[in-house]
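Lecture 7 notes: from sequence to structure.
We start with the chain below.
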Amino acid sequence: MKFRQARGQAGRLRTMRDMGVTGMANLAVKVVDLEAACAWYVAAGATVTEPVTWENGRRADVSLGTLALTLFTKAIYEDACALPDEGFLHPALFVDDLDAELARHTVLWGPRTVSGTFGTRRIAFVEAPGGIRLEFMEQVEDPLGA
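Predicted structure tokens for the same chain:
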């Protein structure tokens, strides 16, 4: 099976470096019962934050070794697309230039500035193959005490 390589402007090959992704914050997962999901991860040995109200639902952060998850009861972009009641939502990816990254995609939701225990970020979402979305974000302000 052959795969076509994507070519950007001037016919050059595009690479992940062209995307400007500098890191991954977490994987986002939607759950119906946040407390039960938190208890499951605690029993699995994870460190789990206390659930908090955030934007249009509730959330909790999970650290399981090097894996960072954020559990949501509702995705912030839920009104922009159809989502299942539970399941994987998106990877949250840091970029060095949000506007430049979004210029390469059709934006599903955002950009918008949001705040929380993570500090302040500009975020936006795009649809990706496999029925998922990608969250691209810029850190605007670090969390307090960081």
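Points to note: The domain at 21-141 is CATH 3.10.180.10 (2,3-Dihydroxybiphenyl 1,2-Dioxygenase; domain 1). The longest strand covers residues 21-30.
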